């Protein structure tokens, strides 16, 4: 019924209601309809009331999509295109907005709920909503074809490792190998591109940490919610409207080290915090972990080097720290059909010049079959399972 309302009707009622204070009720909607000379049938009143309620509650017309089983992402490309991802790639939804103003209003309202400003002076925002949903928006005309909204939906309770096996993100033998990596307190990075499931896999692995250990999780925007009895989270804070009050990940990593962590976890390493993380993993903080954007496991040393150089750590020092800090990299990839898979495990190896390269220990075939790589023996040695 909402989609069948005459053009401009909802806007006309909205303007009438805005001119006088009061709660949004069907009775007030009916009065506003009479004032505009429009029909006041029960169906029309309820449809207009629902359309307006969506404007002020939750994620508006996106709310039904966010509640669909298995949805991980909902993205809005202007008023006419809304897509969702249920784990098999993006699919277009039937939901649309009446105009650009409606998308902009929703984006600004969600930003305000998160305590942030979104207008022409500050045309983009990235924050976490109260229910854990990650919200990002860029206003038009910076974005085309209109205001762009991206919502990343956290799975309630997260996935277990066994559920990821059932979803064919990885096979049973690889799951058991990853369990041994966690149990042996090896330091590891989960690498991959955007949307490959890095955070999902990391959360599942953290569930396998013994319950007596304390996890201190540092994130730019809180997404990691492992099902573990002892988790403490630290979340970065952006500057306020005056440009003050920012608290970055580097500061939070240093604070986390003073909180007696059994496992230090950096949800997403994408800046200078890589220096503090590597230093921590080199000073007795075993079992630390995090995620890192990279196109392949082989690219991880170059990615770490670039981040460390930007933070003031020289190339040689960055490679030296990486070689002794990280035991294994778990790399995920998104296939052409949209499915996410663990693609390979790799271990760092230093050459004669002291630079690190990654040596594949295990690669995963299309049927989830494991193929041994040249680095497997190194990985087994670190697990204490090498040749005896």
How would you summarize the topology of this molecule?
Blueprint: H1 9-18, H2 26-35, H3 42-56, H4 63-66, E1 73-77, E2 82-85, E3 90-92, H5 100-113, E4 124-128, E5 134-138, E6 148-152, H6 161-166, H7 172-183, E7 188-192, H8 198-206, E8 215-219, E9 231-235, H9 249-256, E10 263-269, H10 273-281, E11 289-293, H11 300-310, H12 315-325, E12 328-334, E13 340-350, E14 356-364, E15 370-372, H13 376-382
Characterise this structure:
This protein has 388 residues and is α/β, with parallel strands linked by helices. The chain has three domains: 1-57; 60-154, Beta-Lactamase (2-Layer Sandwich); 161-382, 3-Layer(aba) Sandwich (Rossmann fold), CATH 3.40.50. It contains 13 helices and 15 strands. The protein has helices at 9-18, 26-35, 42-56, 63-66, 100-113, 161-166, 172-183, 198-206, 249-256, 273-281, 300-310, 315-325, 376-382; strands at residues 73-77, 82-85, 90-92, 124-128, 134-138, 148-152, 188-192, 215-219, 231-235, 263-269, 289-293, 328-334, 340-350, 356-364, 370-372. Strands 9-8-10-11-7-12-13-14-15 form a nine-stranded mixed sheet, with helices on both faces. Strands 3-2-1-6-5-4 form a six-stranded antiparallel sheet, covered by helices on one side. A hairpin with a 5-residue loop joins strand 12 (328-334) and strand 13 (340-350). The radius of gyration is 25 Å and the shape is elongated.
